Amino acid sequence: MVKPRSPHTKWAIALLVGLTATAYAVSLDDGPTPVAPVSRSEAEGVLRDAVRLARSGDLAGLCQSVADVAGICLHTVEGTRQSGQHPAETAPTIVGERRQADMLVLEVAGTRTDGTGYHADFGVLRTDSGPRGFNPVYWSGVRIGTSRPCADTPPNAVCARSESSPGD
Length: 168
Hints:
By secondary structure, the protein is an alpha+beta fold. The protein is built from four helices and four strands. Residues 1-25 form the signal peptide.
C-alpha cells in the first residue's frame, strides 16, 4: 500500500525542481564569451598570407581568404588597379602597431611596382573564422582613422592622427 504524501513534500519537490531549472538556465546564459585580442604573431601571419597571395597575383583569393569583408576588399583592389598601384615583390615593413577597437593595426610601409612608396594600416580582427584582415590591400595606402581627438583620449587609447606620409 502506498502511503499518501504530505502537502509539504509536494512543495519541497516543486521547490527543488524550480531551483534546479533556474540554476540550469542561469548556467546557459553566462553572457558573451570574451574574445581574446589578436596577437602580434597572429596579425603578422595574416599579413604574410596577404603578401603571399598578392605576390602570386591571386587578388580575388586574397579577398576571399584573408579579408573580413570580401566585397570591400575587391572594391579596394579595383581602385588600386585603376590607379596603376600594384604590390611589389618585396613584403612591406612593419613600422608600428596600435590597438584600435577590437583590432590590432600593423602600420606598414613599402614600395609599389612603379617605385612609389606607401604607408598603410593593416588591421587584423578576430572573427568566427579566426583572425582576418580588415583591409588586406596593404599597398593601397589606406589608413584606418578614428574620430576621437587626441585631447580627449585617455592614456593608452587611440586618437585621431594628423600625420601624412609621402607617397600616399
